[in-house]
Amino acid sequence: xxxxxxxxxxxxxxxxxxxxxxxxxxxxxxxxxxxxxxxxxxxxxxxxxxxxxxxxxxxxxxxxxxxxxxxxxxxxxxxxxxxxxxxxxxxxxxxxxxxxxxxxxxxxxxxxxxxxxxxxxxxxxxxxxxxxxxxxxxxxxxxxxxxxxxxxxxxxxxxxxxxxxxxxxxxxxxxxxxxxxxxxxxxxxxxxxxxxxxxxxxxxxxxxxxxxxxxxxxxxxxxxxxxxxxxxxxxxxxxxxxxxxxxxxxxxxxxxxxxxxxxxxxxxxxxxxxxxxxxxxxxxxxxxxxxxxxxxxxxxxxxxxxxxxxxxxxxxxxxxxxxxxxxxxxxxxxxxxxxxxxxxxxxxxxxxxxxxxxxxxxxxxxxxxxxxxxxxxxxxxxxxxxxxxxxxxxxxxxxxxxxxxxxxxxxxxxxxxxxxxxxxxxxxxxxxxxxxxxxxxxxxxxxxxxxxxxxxxxxxxxxxxxxxxxxxxxxxx
Length: 477
Ligand code: URA
What we know:
The protein is α/β, with parallel strands linked by helices. The protein folds into 4 domains: about 5-120, no CATH class; about 125-185, no CATH class; about 200-255, no CATH class; about 280-475, Uracil-DNA Glycosylase, subunit E (3-Layer(aba) Sandwich), CATH 3.40.470.10. About 45% of the residues lie in helices and about 15% in strands. It contains 17 helices and 15 strands. It has a 5-stranded mixed beta sheet with strand order 4-5-6-7-8, with helices on one face. Strands 10-9-13-15-14 form a 5-stranded mixed beta sheet, sandwiched between helices. A 3-stranded mixed beta sheet has the order 2-1-3, covered by helices on one side. Helix 2 (about 60-70) packs across helix 4 (about 105-125), helix 3 (about 80-90) packs across helix 4 (about 105-125) and helix 13 (about 385-400) packs across helix 14 (about 410-415). It starts with a strand and ends with a helix. The protein binds uracil (URA). Uracil binds near residues 326 and 362.
């Protein structure tokens, strides 16, 4: 059996020359043994020369060249034979590569994928350290990397483009690459791991720790993206266990800080606003309403038509709190004017409550929705949005000083109590909201509108009326 001895384990040109010669001689794939190492002659010890040349120059599709250039870099010793088998078969089947389930094609695709992944990891995980010595003002850097495959020559052009303003050397057990001025060189010989230390390592670690966002942490995805085998050569890897361990505490601290600080762009808008007109100190509902008109505490203001503030007498003994304005309220600028508002009006009347004597408001003052074609579909506010808007609700309560606050639905209840609570756990009974101020929880009228079964809807509407009657009795009797 003839043996082909390749000098360079990943030189596609060298393999192609040998494969071409074998094809011309008509050598069958299982007649050839492929090896790498030092050679005096490309073909060693076999009867290749005895096989008559077929004569027709081999032709392969462009896609094969692309595939083979990647596969040749794999460290699997069987790759040369696999590629030769493919090239022989391609001479009689030009479309072979499109047969994804073909054993040879599938095997080559797997090797190609693994090489591409290795290249990607190399471009992401090479860490340069500065070394002394400059040439015409260019700084010099060295990096050590341990690839799975023979990918140094394949990835070197990426580094030459990316780091063209410095001289560098990347050393690996599978060869090295270097850039000196404009000259990019690649060598196949295995390199020794250098001793690398850089005074700026500490700076890099500080930077890494600061850009690490614990709120985005997904440990499984992180491990998949940055497998442990690369950690040994990544200075920042030493930080990872403690960053993961402290992530949840940092997220809690960030949330707490976010609750206290409005977003930065809000400050900028406020600064601009205050140069235009100094806001009057808040003391009455009219001023508060005016202030809320330009609220940017959370992003909901970006898409809503306007702030829908509460309405009603400034000293109303009863305050009724809903979730957020709906589509019609957003357009009208008034709370509870849409379908849920109409139902509420009729139940309030049955419960003996005069709507115009109560203060009607919402936990969140901007309409949150998802645009679907021409329709705006209601979306529930999230915990952060509720939290940002609590400031306004708190001010409304401080100014109106109601005897009783009715929370309709879970959002209103969360805004009033400051925690997520089930309506069913507190419903229909008096709770202390603050000294001298009671809280009663009930369902939201929109919930009643969504009940499909008419009998059940009637029963639930009766319970809602009973809750409002309890509210009326407590407030006015
Ligand atoms: N739903 C609410 O919670 N508030 C409104 O103003 C309208 C509908």
